[in-house]
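User: what does the whole thing look like in 3D?
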Amino acid sequence: MKAQRVPEDEYAAFMSRAYAIELEATERYAQFAEQLETHNNREVAELFRKLAEIESRHAQRILAEMRWPSLPALPPAYAWETPEGPETAPFDSLHYLMHPWHALEIALRCETEAKKYYDGIAAGRGPREVRSAAKEMASEEAEHIRLVREWMSRVPRPPQGWDEDPDPPRMSE
Amino acid sequence: MNAPLVAPLLQAKDFKSDYKPVWCPGCGDYSVLAAITKALAALELRPENVALVSGIGCSSRIPAYTTCYGFHGVHGRALPAATGLKAARPDLTVLVASGDGDGYSIGGNHFLHACRRNVDLTYIVMDNHVYGMTKGQPSPTTEPDWSSKLAPGGTGVREFHPLVIALASGANFIARAFSGDPNGCAALIAEAVRHPGFSFIEVLSPCVTFRPEQRAWKESVHPAPVAATADPARAARRLMTDDGFNIGVLYKGDRAPFRPGANGPERAVADLEKGFQL
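Assistant: Here's the predicted 3D structure for the full assembly of 451 residues, as structure tokens:
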């Protein structure tokens, strides 16, 4: 594998981070889909696949906007200041009996965190070009929040006791 | 964010195999797998130069999920297998994966002697205070009052303190990580691999199925208030007040790693075989 191109300026560095955020979110949703496929919760697995596809489109759009012929250099994944990227759902978000509504609730949290992250940069002291790009990203995330909320309104809320399993993996206390 | 823009040769995903993990959704071990692969990518290692050795249990499935060499061995015996591998192939980076049952109970004695021997290994123990694979029996790190159908009223037996044992037995690097912080965990694993000798990392990795209350660990963990020390006496004093949720490096010793042949004449494998000929 060839070494990757390193962004030359702060704007390119910011956009490469934005790309890394979208890529990490894509990978996490794809992992969630795999986990739930393994545990035979196909409806939610399919929803996570859709979310991964949406995040992947966002990542591709950044590449196209930047006219990067190859992938930008990414910061080492473990060097984020937070436990993971701002738009990445934690591994412990899942339950094997979860409903589509829960998956969307996770997506809503992630989009909200991403908006907060970009809002912070937009309000910071970085170069004008970076602040302006961050403002644009924040407004895109706000639109995603609106779309996820709309999606949630079309999905039934889980009934009480959704996590009760008549044949549980653990013995009852 | 202040991460330098560096272009790693391989990405974390290059260390993941095509086998899909079968852990319960929400399990902390997914995070540990992510942390290991991120650490290996950050260390600019290649899968063919790394071996992952494990015993038995949920956490011990990890070698199959990576593209590195792997050995899913006998219950509790990951450390002797890894020691032999490192002795025979010192050029390999050898990581050992275990859980609190496999590593501290069945393999408890090997743990003591691996610390004492100080071979250049990185031992990652995913601790969830329970035997998950066999449906929730108390393990050596289970709290004495944890009551369950299999141990009504709790075992009443004081829990094992892995960091105390590691320090007393001579481990050269001792740290605690939390699976809920995969990036922090990756950084600690990378530091442990770089440190010569036997490096031990206890990773608090919740079992969401048999210990769902461990989801709250994310509220309890906190960075260790003091930096790592090279003084075992100071490290021991710190452990006296450890609440079990201090995250970070506790101890970084400077003991030279054990290398076979360093203390005597090196012998060829053919010479050794002669002794076993009938």
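In plain terms: Chain A touches chain B at residues 1, 3-7, 13, 16-17, 27, 31-32, 34-39, 41, 73-84, 90-96, 98, 169-173 (CB under 8 Å). Residues 10-153 of chain A form a domain with the Ferritin fold (CATH 1.20.1260.10).
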